[in-house]
Amino acid sequence: MCSEVDAAGLSLGRNRLCRQRGLLLILTLFPAERTNRAKGPGHRDFSARHGCLIVASMARVTLRGFLIARSLEEADRVSMLLPDHIRLTRAELGCLRFEVLRSHADPCRFAVTEAFRDRAAFDAHRARAAASVWGRTTKGIPRDYEIREEPRDGG
């Protein structure tokens, strides 16, 4: 899914497709002549072939969706772990918003809303969460999330 791909790895055609779908990528183009040393001398990467340098913008990353426990017992375990997970996440550098709310209508469903300053802050959060008690305990629980990169307010 293009919302999970690093901007520098996308072709312009794919980026246009992402923008048409209202998803995440915003690129800034600058004139450039670069070579890709990792592929050997003289190899020109996409940006050099097309006379531009692709730079990911400093877009805010948001995540919205649901964590869906498979049983009430699993949902209760999630609820027990949430206070620490929320506290630790809100204390992370770059966390702008983090909310997880359990549904009254369906107690196995949790609405999740996250916002991070930029992709680096979001990636740091995901790494920290995956290595935590929360991450290890909830690893197999289904999630239905949409991740977007959006222009920052006022910019």
Summing up helix and strand content along with how strands pair, one would put the structural category as alpha+beta
The DSSP helix count reads 5
For the secondary structure, the number of strands is 6
Report helical residue fraction: 25-40%
Our estimate of the beta-strand percent is 25-35%
* Molecular shape: globular
Q: Quick check: average pLDDT?
A: 75
Radius of gyration: 19 Å
What is the CATH topology descriptor of the largest domain? Answer: Alpha-Beta Plaits
Number of domains: 2
Written as H for each helix and E for each strand, in order along the chain, the element string is: HEHEEHEEHHE
Q: Which CATH C-level class of the largest domain is it?
A: Alpha Beta
Unreliably modeled segments: 1-56
Q: What is the annotated CATH architecture of the largest domain?
A: 2-Layer Sandwich
Strand order of the largest sheet: 4-5-3-6
Main sheet properties:
4 strands, antiparallel
N- and C-termini, Cα separation: 26 Å
